[in-house]
Amino acid sequence: MRQDSDHHNRRSRRSAAAVLCLLFAILVWPVVISTQGTLGDGATDIKYPTGEMGDQRKYHEPTILAFAEQWPSVDLVNYPSATSPGYHLLMALVARYTSHDLVVLQLVSSLLSFGLLLVVWGYGARHTGAWPALGLVLPLVASSYVIGSGIWLVTDNAGLLFVCLALGGAIMVQPTAMRTARWALYATCAAGIRQIQVWVAAPVILAALLGSPLGRHAPRHLCSGSKQSLSWAGVFATLPVLLLPFVLIGLLALLWGGLTPPDFADRHSAGLAPVTFAIVLALVGVFGVFFLPAFCQKWTDILKMDRWLVVAVLLAVAVSLIFPTSADQSLGRWGGAIWELVRRMPDVAGRSIVFPPLAALGAVVLVHAWRAAGRAGRAREATVLLLSLLGWMIAESVNTQSGQRYFEPMILVGLAWLAALSISPTKGTALFVPAHRLWWAGPLTLGAIQLVLSASTVYLPVLRWHPSS
């Protein structure tokens, strides 16, 4: 009986993975294959149909081309990209030793995006099973930003792939010395692709500490269900690898004289962006509504308020009112549907009326998600995930650019994993019982909405675009 169940689970995982691969191929590869020309042949003074295509032509193609020509003596200081050089070094190797053809490069790059989706789905499937996890990841699959980064040569999905490899392991897998070292290497790769992703080293370190003897003294919600599987010797043995992400960013900062290459210091390092907290909470509210059935045992639970929910809502509203939140492109507050809504709606004293209600809704979603995971016996995983998302928000607030593209994919990953953690297993069986029997309808609906938005913001503009326009 156990062998039959294991065989059924393996078959389900293979089938779901195949469907995920097919969806990705349909959404991404037709646009990639339709792209003509070779690396570096695009003009930089025209209006492009999507931001990702514009970034490829203006920044990432020239960087990859320059690295390929300079190899192996690559200039890691004066290159036309604001991000760490890891992605460009990888693609430069492809360009140098295989082909400069743009289609080839985009197809190779798209595999990193498929890897991201496979990792997010795979970690979710550890708790929900293969097909429910596929439903949870559909909003991410259909996101215009994930699709755009999958089509064009940009760093977003590549960096997020290694973030999810490190974060998923730190949250959902019991740490050992070898696993911790591997997660730390993933975190180093994430920081090497986008320097702002160095934050993911923190949850890896936290997971190592919780798995060590020190974990016995952690707060209740952090030690619930955890085992001390890592000795002090193991912690100290992995310490050099755990510090690698910070060493890498420190070396790059010394080379650049700051947190970005010199040519981009004015745009990305002009100061803090406290609006990050308001926009993240607002987007959690917008997307999280569709995941609430997985977090609440009854529909009526969504409307129930208690002391902690009231406190969370008040804090969220305060965060959205303390700092200016009106649209202002010169200050990086632009880009995406939410900023377009802010631009069209009134503001009071520089505070948009859009953020307070949406941020309050986001707080409600997060509280329900944390409680649902606790009911499923996964308080530790949910707490580490929420603390990790807080660290991510703090890191993102260092970047003055606050476009929706910087936040949406990570939020969708977090919501999918929180929902996966919230679905309780029945005893004596490999099946999982959702908190509400219609829980899957929310993510599916959101995925459909995301696909419609992608059609209007990615596919139609590309179809209508002409280089001379």
Pick out its properties.
21 helices, 469 residues, 66% helix, two-stranded antiparallel ribbon, mainly alpha
Q: Explain this structure to me?
A:
It contains 21 helices and four strands. The protein is mainly alpha-helical and 469 residues long. The strands form two sheets. It has a two-stranded antiparallel ribbon with strand order 1-2. The chain is globular, with a radius of gyration of 22 Å. The model is unreliable at 426-432 (pLDDT under 50).
Topology (SSEs and partners):
Layout: H1 2-34, H2 51-70, H3 86-97, H4 102-128, H5 130-141, H6 144-151, H7 156-172, H8 177-193, H9 201-210, H10 220-223, H11 232-242, H12 244-256, H13 265-268, H14 275-288, H15 292-295, H16 307-322, H17 337-344, E1 347-348, E2 351-352, H18 355-375, H19 379-396, H20 408-422, E3 424-425, E4 432-433, H21 441-464
Antiparallel strand pairs: 1-2, 3-4
Helix pairs in contact: 1-4, 1-5, 1-6, 2-3, 4-5, 4-6, 4-7, 4-20, 5-20, 5-21, 6-21, 7-8, 7-9, 7-19, 8-9, 8-11, 8-12, 9-19, 14-16, 14-18, 14-20, 16-18, 18-19, 18-20, 19-20
What Rg do the Cα atoms give?
22 Å
Given helix and strand content, the structural type is: mainly alpha
Following the backbone from N to C, one meets helices and strands in this order, namely HHHHHHHHHHHHHHHHHEEHHHEEH
> How large a portion of the residues is in β-strands, by DSSP E?
under 5%
Instruction: Quickly count the helices.
Output: 21
Shape: globular
Low-confidence runs (pLDDT<50, min 5 residues)? 426-432
How many DSSP E strands?
4
- What's the N-to-C terminus distance? 64 Å
User: Which sequence of strands runs across the widest sheet?
Assistant: 1-2
What portion of residues is helical?
Answer: 55-70%
How many strands, what sense, and barrel or not for the largest sheet? 2 strands, antiparallel
